[in-house]
Structure formats: structure tokens, C-alpha cells
Design goal:
CATH architecture of the largest domain: Orthogonal Bundle
Largest sheet: 5 strands, antiparallel
Helix content: 25-40%
Order of helices and strands: EEEEEHEEHEEEEEHEHHHEEHHH
CATH class of the largest domain: Mainly Alpha
Strand content: 15-25%
Number of strands: 15
Number of helices: 9
Number of domains: 3
Strand order of the largest sheet: 3-4-5-7-6
CATH topology of the largest domain: Transferase(Phosphotransferase), domain 1
Length: about 450
């Protein structure tokens, strides 16, 4: 049987790729396919199966060759994203992992699903299977996640989902491509990433999220754990996990089991089980949190609650221009990046910018300084914009002279009404007294025993 055109199963019921394989279906014992000729074209109707196509490859969706809509669907509105919101009721064949896959290892395991690295024996292809617990989700929710992931896969920075979906006794499963370098959380150190790496990542993610928003879809669960890395220099990262993805404008509940620091303030203020309208500005907020997290290695605050979290209260005063003081945890950033943060992390959702706003700041410097490890180091303005951190030199010409230090100290003291002269003779005498006390308390026997202990 020839290769059936890609993506057709997404728009016709009981359509699949390949010859149906040997897996068992709930409604069919022999899993046979029925083919008819219509206008000299051969069309088949079979359950969706996890087998490969006749070309011997797992099919990845492409941007072209989309079949026309079936008449059972309503015609979508012009501005609602089109066919992507038509989620078909695809029948999932019942099988076990061992039927066609060798499980090599478990990559991750969470509350709702586990991620398995497997080898597909018929095609000898390394794939990732996402197995969602059947007791913790419905078949409709699984189909929605699989459908959105598959339909968005042709974007270069969205994780590709293969045309493979099935169910076991305990899980609903679909196949995805493998990211060799894991998620972004495992690649960020305690002090964050290089500025240039952050720019690369943000540019790719804003492109992926902008594509989703153009289809009237909101991701709703943007965090470093949902960004997968394909190259060690971060030139290729992809967005994943579309379990919370929802059409713009629908009423939804808060996303469960996510970091509190990523939750926008308007959602944090909701009471339990209260629904709200799903809007793209929630992705903009989470994108701003993601930028800060990549640059520093930590979120800017524990929760966006200005009453309970002092870090957020300080930023909100700065964001609303109630003070000109930059919050301490944002002081390393340039004024241009602070302007960017103000737009993404606005407390009022109506004032937040679009997800692609970050493209305006790509040519600007983001990080101006880092905390020096040397107390005597002096900041020298960097001239090489390719470097992330500032340059610190302990050279004599970089330090202030003794007279200049005295003048600065006197000026600071007089500012606070403490214009008190310093008696250098008294300071010298106190130092000598302290040294004499140390010399008087010196016990040669004890010190010699301590030296022997060190030698041993």
C-alpha cells in the first residue's frame, strides 16, 4: 500500500498511516483496513496505529499537504486559528510497550505522566514516548494535547510529535522526537547563562510562542522545564508540553502543579476553582519570568503577591514608577532590559506587551555588571560587547587614591549630619594596643603543639 498523505488522520475519523500493523484495537480483532476507490484515488480507513509508513520512517508533520476538512466539522471563524482547533476523536489502538518498543531508560516522571526513551524496533528509530496516566486524565484531554503538539510540529522551534498514538492498560501514549541535551533546567547553572545564550533562547521561544498566538492558542505553562535543548550552544531549542494549551478566549481554571513564581498576579488572586478567560498576556508574563531565570539561575520572586512577597512588592513599585530605585535583584541589568522587563512583567495584564516584543532588544546590552569576588576590585566599563560579565581589574590606576577616599567618606558623613573628624593618631594607637594584646596572649607551647598537629 502506498504512503498516505501526512496529517490526514487529524481531519478524518479512523484514518492512519501504514498498513495497521499487528496491534490490537478495542473495536477490531483483526485490525484489517478497508480501501475504496474514489476519483481514481485510493483511500483507506483504519484505526490510528503506532507503526511506520511504507517508506520505513516515522512520519513528521510538514507544512504542506493538508487534506481538506471533513463535512462533519463546522466551518471555523476567520480569526480563530482555523483547522487547528478542530480536535478529532481519534481511536487509539490497545497494545503494550513491548509490542514494538524497547524501553532504554526513563527520562523524567511527574504527577501526570512519565517520559520514556525508547527504540522503535520496526524502524530502529530512537523516539521519546510520553505516557500519560489514564486515571489522572481523560481521553479528550489527551487527544487535545496530542493534536495541538502534532499540528504545531512543523514550526522549527516546537517539539515534533510523530503520527503515533496508542493506549496501554494504564497509559495514553504518543511519540515525540528526542532532545539529546535534555531540558533547559538541567543546562542552567546556579548563576544563569551567558547573555548571548539567553538572547538565542529568547529569540527562538518568542518565535514559537508568536506562532502559537497567531493560531489563537495560549501555552499557559511556560517554564524552563518545558524548553528542550538540541545543541550545546543553545542555537536550537524547542518548546514542548502542550497539556495546558488552550484556545484564546475560553474560560479555564488555573494550571495545576506548576511553579508559583510563574503564575501571573491576576491568576494568583483568584479563589479556588474560579475560572478566568485565557489570554496570550499570561504567556508574556511567564516569558518575562523565564528571561530572568535564564540570566540569573533563579526566579525573581517566590510569588507575584505584593503583600506577602517583598521582592515582588519592590519590583511593582518600580514598574508602576512609584519609585526610581531599581530593585536589588535587578540591578545587574541594563536600562534597556529593565524597560523590557517592565513591559513583560506589568502587574496590569492590559499593559503587557506581545510575546515578540523582545526582538526590539536583541541588539542592546542586557547585563551591565556582575558582583565582584574581590572587595578591592573596581568596575571598569567594558568595551567588548561580546562578553557577558563586566571586567574587573585590581590595577593601581583603577583604584581611587587615599585622598579621594577620604573626601568621599567625609562627603557621605556630612550628608547624614555626621561631620566628625577622624583622629589618625587615635586609630594608630588602638591598632598597636590590639597587637600588643595578641602578643601578650601568645603561648609558645600551645602554638608548637598546634604546628605539630598540622604537620601530622
Amino acid at each position: 500500500m502506498g504512503t498516505i498523505e501526512k496529517r490526514s488522520f487529524s481531519f478524518r475519523l479512523r484514518r492512519s498511516f501504514g498498513d495497521g500493523g499487528s496491534t490490537n484495537s478495542r473495536n477490531s480483532n483483526n485490525n484489517s483496513s478497508t480501501c475504496t476507490n474514489h476519483n481514481n484515488q485510493k483511500r483507506c480507513s483504519t484505526p490510528l496505529t503506532p507503526t511506520s509508513t511504507s517508506t520505513g520512517r516515522l512520519e513528521v508533520p510538514g507544512a504542506a499537504s493538508v487534506s481538506r476538512r471533513s463535512s462533519i466539522y463546522k466551518k471555523p471563524d476567520k480569526n480563530d486559528g482555523g483547522q487547528i482547533h478542530l480536535i478529532p476523536d481519534v481511536e487509539l489502538p490497545l497494545m503494550t510497550f513491548a509490542d514494538q518498543y524497547n524501553i532504554e531508560k526513563t527520562l523524567a516522571e511527574g504527577c501526570f505522566a512519565k517520559i520514556l526513551l525508547c527504540r522503535h524496533r520496526p524502524t530502529n528509530t530512537l523516539v521519546v514516548l510520553k505516557a500519560v496516566h489514564a486515571e489522572l486524565t481523560t481521553i479528550k484531554e489527551f487527544q487535545k494535547e496530542f493534536h495541538y503538539n502534532y499540528e504545531l510540529s512543523h514550526h522549527h522551534h516546537i517539539l515534533s510529535a510523530y503520527a503515533v498514538a496508542f493506549q496501554t492498560m494504564d497509559y495514553y501514549v504518543f511519540a515525540m522526537e528526542h532532545a539529546p541535551y535534555g531540558d533547559l533546567a538541567s543546562n542552567i547553572g546556579p548563576n544563569g547563562l551567558h547573555e548571548n545564550a539567553c538572547k538565542l533562547i529568547s529569540e527562538q521561544l518568542s518565535s514559537a510562542l508568536g506562532f502559537m498566538h497567531s493560531k489563537s492558542l495560549v501555552h499557559r505553562d511556560l517554564k524552563i522545564e518545558n524548553i528542550l535543548v538540541f545543541t550545546p550552544d543553545f542555537t536550537r531549542v524547542k518548546l514542548c508540553d502542550f497539556g495546558a494549551t488552550t484556545k484564546k478566549g475560553l474560560l479555564v481554571h488555573k494550571v495545576k502543579h506548576t511553579w508559583t513564581s510563574c503564575v501571573p498576579p491576576e491568576q494568583l488572586e483568584l479563589i479556588k476553582n474560579e475560572r478566568f478567560q485565557c489570554l496570550p498576556v499570561s504567556d508574556s508574563w511567564q516569558f518575562g519570568i523565564l528571561l530572568y531565570n535564564i540570566l540569573t539561575g533563579n526566579p525573581p520572586w517566590q510569588s507575584a503577591d505584593w503583600v506577602k512577597d517583598q521582592s515582588y512588592a519592590n519590583f511593582m513599585k518600580y514598574e508602576q514608577r512609584k519609585t526610581t530605585k531599581v530593585p536589588d535583584n535587578f540591578r545587574r541589568f541594563s536600562p534597556r532590559l529593565m524597560r523590557c522587563f517592565r513591559k513583560y512583567l506589568s502587574h496590569d495584564p492590559e499593559d503587557r506587551c506581545k510575546i515578540t516584543e523582545v526582538a526590539k532588544y536583541m541588539k542592546d546590552r542586557w547585563v551591565e555588571c556582575r558582583i565582584s569576588t574581590s572587595k578591592s576590585a573596581t568596575l571598569i566599563s567594558p568595551t567588548n560587547h561580546d562578553q557577558d560579565s563586566c571586567i574587573y581589574l585590581n590595577q593601581r590606576e583603577g583604584r581611587l587614591s587615599g585622598d579621594e577616599n577620604k573626601l568621599r567618606f567625609k562627603r557621605m558623613m556630612s550628608t547624614y549630619g555626621l561631620d566628625i573628624p577622624i583622629d589618625q593618631a587615635m586609630v594608630r594607637r588602638r591598632v598597636w594596643d590590639w597587637l600588643s594584646t595578641c602578643d601578650a596572649n601568645f603561648d609558645p607551647d600551645v602554638e608548637s603543639l598546634h604546628a605539630l598537629d598540622l604537620l601530622q
